[in-house]
Design goal:
It is a single chain. The chain is 45% helix and 0% strand. With 47 residues, it is mostly helical. The longest helix is centred in the N-terminal third of the chain and has 21 residues.
């Protein structure tokens, strides 16, 4: 005898995982680091 709530749980988990994978396919845009700002000075500790 099969336990239908367990099968339903696995079906929901698989469905959510599939939707997450399909959602990630739509991400667009350039993947780059912004240029470093030359006016920013970092504080240096002198010991």
């Amino acid at each position: 005898m099969h336990c239908w709530p367990r099968n339903l749980l696995w079906l929901v988990i698989a469905g959510i995982g599939t939707l997450n994978l399909l959602n990630a396919c739509g991400q667009k845009g350039p993947l780059y680091l912004p240029p470093a700002d030359e006016n920013i000075q970092t504080e240096q500790r002198s010991e």
